[in-house]
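Case 350 in the screening queue. Each case pairs one protein sequence with one candidate compound; here the compound is cobalt (II) ion. For every case the pipeline is the same: read the inputs, emit a complex structure as tokens, and attach any notable structural observations.

Predict complex for case 350.
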Amino acid sequence: MAKTKKPAAKKVAAKKPAVKKAAVKKPAAKKPAAAKKTAAKKPAAAKKPTAAKKPAAAKKPAAAKKAGAKKPTAAKKPPLRKPPLKKPPVNKPAAKKPAAKKPVAPKKVAAPKKPAPNKRAPKKTAPKKKSPATASAASDDDFYDRIFENNLRWIEEKTRTDATFFERLSREQNPTVLFVGCADSRVPANEIMGLEPGEVFVHRNVANLVPNTDLNVHSVLQYGVEHLDVKHVIVCGHYGCGGVAAAMQSADLGQLNGWLREIRDVYRLHVDELEAIKDETARYRRLVELNVQEQCVNIIKTSFVQQAYSKKGYPIVHGWVYSLKDGRLKDLKISFRDILEKIREIYRLD
Ligand code: CO
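Case 350 output:
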């Protein structure tokens, strides 16, 4: 027990051997566009930590909302991509493209049926998704239909620059990176890393957890490490995480209790450090980081990661935190080798 008490958080041990460098090419931290949509949520997140200190149940309702995954989607309705009808910007010379015709073709087949439903009509007359904040049923339909329009446009864009794009990807995937992130709609894995389809294997859940008994995340990990042969496994949390905020409260969150308990366990492991932080926002941010760190440890504990590493020298496990405010990715510089060394005695599986 004594060992687990002291998490190697601070150890930013100098990176050792070359393995890490070898494959580092991928993680291009591009400028994410995701950050802009977030403004509305911030204040809510900031409030949460307050409850941690106070036994008062006053904030309960807020907590429930926050944790409920559905809330954000319903309320805010983040615009998907660009407005579809206005801009087929790069598509102008579409006449040439063979690809452009493909997707359109199926539409024609179904054409006789489409005029019937009225859904389509309002879509054309109301291209203004930004207009009122009132989310009517009609605009919901709009939003939903737009997804398929976006899809067609995306197909066009992809095939215009690379005619074999889909054919190539349909044959195989060869990602270098496995990304475990939060399900939060503002943290789209590929986008924040500037990576294309085929370049990152992704698992997301509430608060980017890797519980030791979760078959889902462990299946993804094992497949990624053993079969896809990824070089890097990344746990990416984010400041302003609703899951972490909810875990800092005393509210009973029903079904989420068991899941969020993982984060409370992280809090318990690091209670001294966390309680020493007086500023609640700072403490909240630190818990986000420590949660990432502990999920990294959970990954390092697994037999297949340990075995792969001793055979091949990878994967390397990294902990990152994403900032909703400016889109930056921060590498927590968690020392994979130090942690592995430390926990090996306890978790070794020969
Ligand atoms: Co989150």
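Case 350 observations:
- Residues 1-130 have pLDDT under 50 and may be disordered.
- Strands lie at 177-182, 200-205, 232-238, 316-322, 329-331.
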